[in-house]
Amino acid sequence: FLRPIPPNSSILRTSGLAMGAACPGCKASCHGCWSGLGRGGSSAGSDAKAAPKRFVCHDGLPMVTKDVFCGVVETKEIHFGDVTLNMETWPSYRIGSTVWPSGMLLARAMAERHPALPEVAGRRIAELGAGPGVPGLVCGKLGAAEVALTDKAELVPLMARNIELNGLSATCRGEDLDWPMALGSGLAVQRQIARPNRWRAESGQEPLDLVIGADIVYFEEQDPLIEAIRALMVPGITTMVLAYRERTPADRMYLEQVILKALDCTRVDYETPESGSTEIYIGKLR
Question: pTM for the full model?
Answer without folding.
Answer: 0.76
